[in-house]
Amino acid sequence: MISNRILLIVTLQILLLISLLYSDNETSDEVYSNQFRFAIRYLGMKITEVELIDTRTEAQGSIEVKAKSVSFGRLLFRVDNTYRIEYTDAYIPGQYDKFIKQKNFSHHKRAVFDRSGERLLIWREGEHTEFSGMDLKDCRDFFSALLVLREVPVIHDSFALTIYANNNLWNGQVTYSGNEIIDKRETIKYRILFNQITDNKTQRSDVLTNNIVKEESSLYLWITDDDMRLPLKAEYDASPFSVFWTLEDYDISYSLEQLKPPNNANQNDERE
User: Fold this and answer.
1) Residue 210, phi then psi, degrees to nearest 5
2) Is residue 13 part of a domain?
3) Contact criterion met (CB below 8 Å) for 194 and 218
4) Which of 184, 155, 157, 167 shows the shortest CA–CA distance to 262?
5) Omega before residue 153 within 30° of 0, cis
6) pLDDT in tens, 96-116
């Protein structure tokens, strides 16, 4: 009698374990991760190293970016910043955290995008600020916008991305500028011009992203014209000298064939 009970208990435990394993296999999404390592150069010298890790499933993902000054950059402007973004499909961010450690300045700032309520919620060092009437439907931060450009089919025209930077929304007008050979690779060149949409009060923040999004400057991007769609190079047309981002290393676990095009990009033009 006792042995039968023991056999029944063991059988039920085995069935429960099989059920749990089957359930996990049915509900879990496969996780992909891409890593990019950039060098930021000014006057030909490397001043900052940037590591970007994009981890995603089919429906959501996260981006973590770490930027740290090196060599001459420690004298020019010392940075040791971390950025974290939680996004849904098509790199639409829901939450954006900045952990800023710069010379004589540090803070943690969180931006939450309340799209249904058209509110931008900001938390910074215990202070809460709310900006209402914000059209956040297709808004992206700088890094999400950079990654979504990897997924955009080549459009031989211009299209717009809405960019969030320092409490404000910006229109990023992206223009196809032809194909160029960079480091023996065929690349697609884009030019991005920024126009400010909202006029909210800005705050002192990081030099890495907010200085790029300005009306008086242009941003150029070179992305490889293949299934890898590597962000090979960027040029920030600053005054008096340009700042360059160059891809130094990468680790790709998924290619363009596994990516879905963004919902808000104009896809009417076919690639020639």
Assistant:
1) -65, -30
2) no
3) no
4) 155
5) no
6) 999 999 888 888 999 999 999
Residue 204 included in any domain:
yes
pLDDT tens, position by position, 40-95: 998 888 999 999 999 998 789 999 999 999 987 677 778 899 999 999 989 999 99
Tokens encoding 63: 């981006």
Name the residue range of residue 100's domain: 31-258
Q: Report the distance separating Cα 34 and Cα 121, nearest Å.
A: 29
CA dist., res. 69 & res. 49, Å (int): 6
Q: Evaluate whether residue 24 is within a structural domain.
A: no
Query: In this structure, what CATH number is given to the domain that contains residue 114?
Result: 2.50.20
Alpha carbon 56 to chain centroid distance? 12
| Number of separate domains in the chain | 1
3-state DSSP of the chain:
CHHHHHHHHHHHHHHHHHHHHHHHHHHCCCCEEEEEEEEEEECCEEEEEEEEEEEECCCEEEEEEEEEECCCHHHHCCEEEEEEEEEEHHHEEEEEEEEEEECCEEEEEEEEEECCCCEEEEEECCEEEEEECCCCCCEECHHHHHHHCCCCCCCCCEEEEEEEECCEEEEEEEEEEEEEEECCEEEEEEEEEEEECCCCCCCCCCCCCCCCCCCCCEEEEEEECCCCCCEEEEEEECCCCCEEEEEEEEECCCCHHHCCCCCCCCCCCCCC
Has residue 25 been placed in a domain? Answer: no
This prediction's pTM? 0.81
